[in-house]
TrEMBL record, chain A:
This is Protein kinase domain protein. The keyword 4Fe-4S does not apply. The lineage of its organism: Bacteria, Pseudomonadati, Planctomycetota, Planctomycetia, Pirellulales. Keywords: Kinase, Membrane, Transferase, Transmembrane, Transmembrane helix. It comes from the Bacteria. It comes from Botrimarina colliarenosi. Residues 26-313 form the Protein kinase domain. GO terms for molecular function: ATP binding; protein kinase activity. The chain crosses the membrane at residues 676-699. Pfam families: Pkinase.
Automatic annotation (TrEMBL), chain B:
Residues 206-227 are annotated as: Disordered. Residues 24-203 form the VWFA domain. InterPro entries: Tellurite-R_TerY, VWF_A, vWFA_dom_sf. SUPFAM superfamilies: vWA-like. This is von Willebrand factor type A domain protein.
Amino acid sequence: MTRPSSSLLRQPLDKPLLYDSSDRVVPLGDAIGAGGEGTVFEINGHPKLLAKVYHKASLNDQHDHKLRTLVSLGAEDLLGIAAWPRALLFDPRTKAVRGLMMDRVADAHPLHELYGTTSRSRTFPQAQWGHLVLAARNLAAAFGTLHERGVLVGDVNQGNLLVDGKMCVRMIDCDSFQVTHRKHVFRCPVGTPHFTPPELQSMKLADVDRTAEHDAFGLAILIFHLLFVGRHPFAGRYQGPGDMTIEKAIAERRFAFSHNRSDTQVDPPPASLRLDDLPHGIGELFERAFRADIDNPVRPKPEEWIGELETLIKQRRVCPIEEAHVYSSASLDCPWCRIENAGGPSFFLNIGAVDGTSESRLAALDAQLEKIEAIQFPELPTLTLKLPRLPMAMQSAKAPQRGTADWLAAGWIGSAALCLGGAFCGPVLAAGAVGSLATAGMLAFGKAGKQRRQTLVEADAALNERLRKLAAGSSKISADHGKRLEEYDAYAASVSTGIQRYKADTEDMETILRQLRIEQKEDFLRGYSIRDYRRRIPGLTPQMVAMLDSYSIDSAYHVQKILLTGVPGLTPAVMLELQAWRTRVEEKFEYKAEEGITERELNADKQEATRRFKIALARKILQGAKRMRSMAFAAQGQLDQAIAVYKRHVEQWRGLAHQRQQTQAARAPWERKLNLNLATVIGAGVGAPLVGALLWLIVR
Amino acid sequence: MDQLSAESAFSSVEFAENPEPRVPCVLVVDTSTSMQGLKLIELSKGLATYRDQLMKDALASKRVEVGIITFGGRVQRRTKFVTAPDFVPPQLDAIGGTPMGEAILEAITMVEERKQAYRENGIAYYRPWIFLITDGEPNDHWKPVCSRVEAGEKDKSFCFFAVGVEGANMEVLSEISVRKPLWLMGLKFHELFTWLSNSQQAVSQSSPGEEVALQDPTSGPTGWAAI
């Protein structure tokens, strides 16, 4: 282990004289680090190489063999991902192995500099969450390469990995890795408890042959650190009694972010990403890695991580409000905004646009707020929604084809005329009567006449039915639109309150905070329905609840003396009990600094607190504006769709109506009037001779 | 009305931003009138050294947290727990008597509160350090403190170190401290704080719970203590 320790650096180090395998002197330069095992030197004339020299003048056989094996394993793929030992260093006199030479990993930093928020902004200012995912992918790839060669890291920890600006990962301290040579296992004698799998916790690691499953656990922990910006998967809020150390949590498989909370008894820490913010597949891999069966663990292999992480990289999304927020498309809203809005830290900042100070961030948000154009909620096209009317019957140009019914009707007219004329001549009257009865009868009961009447009745019935449906459709469209408008208006009102507060001066902040607190409390009280808590309020009968309900008193919020006194049937004792209940509910209320600041912070630094408040608020407003825009957009879409359907139905109706009118126009006008319905036809058929007969009687 | 605790209101940001495991250390510093002059000047310089040393180590600057309690006339929490980048050594002024007993109890309380905050925020931690620096003897009830320190050391709630500066009553210190109290040679505060920072760096690079052998402060060129 060669973790650099500054305390040892200050001690003078004598540089030993060392040879390489072909007895040439290796000129050691400055010492750049030292640890318990040895010292790392630069090599003069070879800026890309380093030499590690062990403190011990002679290594034991085991160690000697291990180093020789390591050097013999050195292949291009390993040299690409690790500072793999390239050659050995020998004591010129005893020819014993004293150290080794390896590549210097330049321009790279320990992994924690990438996942730590403060160090990231300094060391990797351009890195967003997508970069961390990429580093995790490359980390898995490095493990994959080692495992392919039968090499195990053994002591996985955040210290023996370096990551460069391109997010490529390189391993250092490779001499502690576990390697196998001709079935002989050269063990890794050390471990880091926070990265050690449950089955190895509290075991003497020098006596353990590590397996790929053990490495898989450490790999998953490292990936978790990257994806969850520094959080350890087993560090959460333990709900049970006593202290829960990480080692114990690992041994008991208490994965703090697990979905299976009843098993783990641990809540995830506040202001952190959640497992649901990641694609389901990655959540599954974490659950498998950290909740694996101890006796027969099957943890995710590097290839599985690579697959899922590459998908995540491809499906990442950029927050529309804060460009610096990159997140998985699996989550609906930006989780970083959610964390910040709840008063959490800003894990990622847009370095290009802002320098991280609250002033510059506020200025950037100001500019964005200005850009919120007036959002138009679509209007209801009332004209389009009017019900259609019957079109005028168009006279067709060519003479219509007269049918049997038309001739029969014409015959009846003739007969009727005969009847009237026959008042002076009996036989004519008789002939007219016969003619009238015959033609009317044939029209009334004959196929042709019947069909004409039926077509009209059917057409009218169909048209009326459709018209009814159209009316219903039209009013549904209006109602739906009204509901959406109402929702939109309510939302717009809250956004505009936000904008007012945003524009408020620093002096008004106290008032605003007080308002926020009151609003939050009122919402909280509204959440306690009297009906649900009836049994907790002594003396409150269901009848009283119903009575209270009818007076719109249904939650703890409404339990106010002035409101209660008006309600009949409420005894003074119950009234007091209700008020006592409200007090109990009130005591449970805990103010959450929704916009991230409290009065206390306001008192500490008014300017800064106001700016932070405004940043949170501006983000909320922008989110609100985005939501308003999408509400308007959705409303327009739904309206357009509904109107299109409505229009299609109107067109169909018009088609039918036109057809009806055309059919009617094709009938001879006299036939249309005579053959209106059965009664008319029969009435006319019988009526004409009767009138004729009456006239005959009068005249005679 | 609803109460909002300062810990839960402010610390979640700090811990979310830096979820690294913590090495908390309370410095319990004597600022009674006897410390006036060179002693306090050197001690203040030592605090700056301490900060600078911690800053040199990327991991220690994220993990080691310093809190300061002073006792001179009355017991005061001068610095809440902060990591090196946020640590501004306070201005120390000598005044009043030596309420050492109360100061130690306050340090134990401070450590317990901090541990609670760690637990609430899902932060792993190493055994806290309580580091007492004095040049006198307590002028309050210090006897009950002995059992508290002993109990704390026994169940590994914290490590208690006592450093006596010229004038300190070492007998009382060895009664209070389970570990042997250290006697500061001259005014080697610089060396003392360098040692403190190095030891904590070593601890911060181990894993919580692991025992780390500390460098012997009484020997070598960087030694600063006598027993």
